[in-house]
Write a structure and sequence with these properties.
By secondary structure, the chain is an alpha+beta fold. The chain has helices spanning about 5-20, 30-40, 85-100, and strands at about 45-55, 60-70, 75-80, 105-110, 120-124. Helices cover about 35% and strands about 35% of the residues.
């Protein structure tokens, strides 16, 4: 993963710790809950299921979309539990980054083994 930064490294480390303890095969919500606990243990501020509005032709639409996790107001996490990540998943996180104004996103597939193969970093 090019252009690593300390915050995303900490987030990835937390996700790997969750995956190491749980393995693949659970629902996305279970990984989200455990990842939230791990992020809290590391002292990282984060919010789950963040509803963000969409501005469409000058009109604010609420809720516009929901982000799985936002860490330190600067990294958007989109969690998946799928066989393989698809171009649609990448398009989804890129759109979320654009609409949210958040610069960095991590797409994480907790069904990947090892988890590192299921993580993609995006920069808006």
């Amino acid at each position: 993963m090019p252009d690593r930064d300390p915050l995303t490294e900490r987030i990835i480390g937390a996700a790997i710790e969750v995956h190491r303890n749980l393995g693949p095969g659970l629902l996305e919500s279970a990984y989200e809950e455990c990842l939230s606990l791990e992020l809290s243990t590391q002292g990282l501020n984060h919010r789950r299921q963040v509803q963000l509005p969409i501005t469409y032709k000058g009109n604010k639409i609420e809720p516009g979309f929901r982000v799985d996790v936002v860490v330190e107001h600067s990294v958007l996490l989109e969690l998946k539990t799928v066989e393989t990540l698809a171009p649609l998943h990448e398009a989804q996180i890129l759109t979320y980054l654009k609409l949210s104004g958040i610069a960095t996103g991590l797409l994480m597939n907790f069904n990947a083994t090892p988890l590192k193969r299921g993580i993609k970093r995006f920069v808006n």
